[in-house]
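#lab-general

N.A. 3:47 PM
ok so I finally got the sequence cleaned up, no stray characters, all 275 residues accounted for. can someone with queue access submit it? mine expired

B.Y. 3:52 PM
send it over

N.A. 3:53 PM
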Amino acid sequence: MPEGPEIRRVADRLGKVLVGREIDEVWFAFDTLKPFEARLKGQKVVSVDSWGKALLTRFEDDHVIYSHNQLYGVWRIMRRGRQPAGRRSPRLHLATASHSAWLLSASDISLWRLDELDQHPFLAKLGPDLLTHDVSVDDIEARLDAGAWRSRRLGSLLLDQHLYAGIGNYLRSEILFFAGLHDRWRPRDLSGTARRRLAATMLDITHRAWRHAGVTNARQWREPMIAAGEPRRRWRHAVFNRAGLPCHACATPIEKHSVASRRLYYCPQCQPPPG
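B.Y. 4:20 PM
back already:
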C-alpha cells in the first residue's frame, strides 16, 4: 500500500497538469456528487495537496475534493480525450484543455468547503503531514516528548497516524534503522541527543522517499548495487524486506519480526534493544 511519499508524488503530478488551469470537464461516478459537477466546471484548481494518504484538490471557490486511494485506487494522467485502459472502474474525472486526470477504483471521495475540512471524520484524527505541513525537527522533537506519545514504544508509535500522517510500514523500519533505535525504545527513555536524532531522521527519510520515488537506502550503499545491475528490490531500502541479508553498515544479517501486527525489519547490531 502506498505511503505518504507516494501520495505526495501523486499530488505533485496532478498539480503540474491541474493547478492554475480551468477545469472544463468534471465527472463523478457517484450520484450524491453529480449535482456538484456543474458548480466545479469552469473553475481553476488552486492546489493539489496530500495529507497522509488522502488527496485534497482545492478549487478557486474554496471547495475541496477529498479522495483516498484506499487499497486499490490509482490516478491516471493522460492527454485530453484519451480513456484509461484496463478493467478498473472510473470514479472521478477532471479535464483541462490539454490533460485528463482519472481516479480509478477508489470509492472514498467527497466534496467539502475549505473551512469545514477540520470536521472531516478522517482528517480530523490525523497528525500533521511531514511533507505538506512545513514540519520542522523542533516540532517533531517536541511532539515526541509530549503527552501520551512519550510513553509509547516506537514500533507502534511511528505507525500511529495521529502522531504524523503518512508513515507506513517501510518508512517505520527505515527510520528506526537510520536513527539506530530498536522498536522497543520509548521517547521518554531516549537521551535528548537520541530523541533529536530520531526527529531529524523521521523528516529526512520521509523526504528522501519522496524525492527518490520510495527509495530510502543511503546513496553510498545503493549506487554500487545499481552499478552492479542488482534489481531495485535489493537496493531500494537499507533494511526493509531484506531479512537474512547483510546489514550495509556492519554485515550482521537483517532480522524480521512482527510489531503492531506488521512486519518490521532491523539490524540487531546497529539497533540494540533497551537495557
